[in-house]
Amino acid sequence: MILPFLSALAGEPIVWEDNACREGRLRKYLFYEMIVTPSLVRLVREDSDLRTLRAIAKFRYLPVMQIRKPKLPRGRDRRLRDGEMEAICTASDSPGLPDLVRFAVETGMRRSEMSGMTWDRVDLKNRTVTLLVTKNGEKRIVPLSTEAGRILSSLTRRIDGKVWGMAPDSITQAFIRALARARTAYEKECAEKGRKPDPDFLTGLTFHDLRHEATSRFFELGFDASRVKEITGHKTYQMLARYTHLKAEDIARDMDRLEKERDRKSLEEVDEKSGEESEP
Fold first, then answer.
1. What angle do CA 113, 117, 122 make, to 5 degrees?
2. In 3, 104, 127, 219, which residue has its Cα 20 to 30 A from 150's Cα atom?
3. Which class for 188: exposed (0-12), middle (13-18), buried (19 or more C-beta within 10 A)?
4. Which pTM value belongs to this model?
5. How many CA atoms lie within 13 A of 229 on its CB side?
6. 67 or 184, which is more confident
């Protein structure tokens, strides 16, 4: 869709060069099709690899540059509810999915990252997984919780060296099937007990939401943003914020805990001061 638009601006047909297309040089400069950003124009002016697009460089002020770029949508706020993960794992018809689901929540790893895991990059002794290829194109070392380490230790080693042996799309499809089966079982149970099923339970959940869940749990454990960013591999703090959804009730409990801790310290300081004053 974007090529005819650029061709019209340039007054001549425009074709991507193979290397530019292969590297996806322009992908990050476009929010939506048919929008040419100032960054794109600057790239065309400065990048010799895109000389076939230099024809549009003469347009210093494109009308579209005066249009405010649309804001990115707010990140999904779907988090696991009590009992959902267990229900999905129980209903799965894929032997490997239950461990994958639990591992995803423990590590916050992306679906593609887990799918590409190999045993030669797993260090169970130090509880780390090294990812050479990530979405951001950067190497990342993921720390493993005790539970994540236990999950990996329980797995049978494959001949091909892969940890999971499931392609990304296969993981998604297995999750969709498990979610549907779990919902059906839940509705059947509610019918047998004469109870109205919760419309939000086991619905509207995606495998990628497990990454959101893990990220939020890291913050709930008390990790600061910089540490969570290193664990999850988010490129920017802005993206990290879109993936973080702390539950209000959890924040309220934390507030109570912190207030009690503050009051306790205040009493200790008062007692200590009183003791010093009573000394001869």
1. 125
2. 219
3. exposed
4. 0.64
5. 12
6. 184
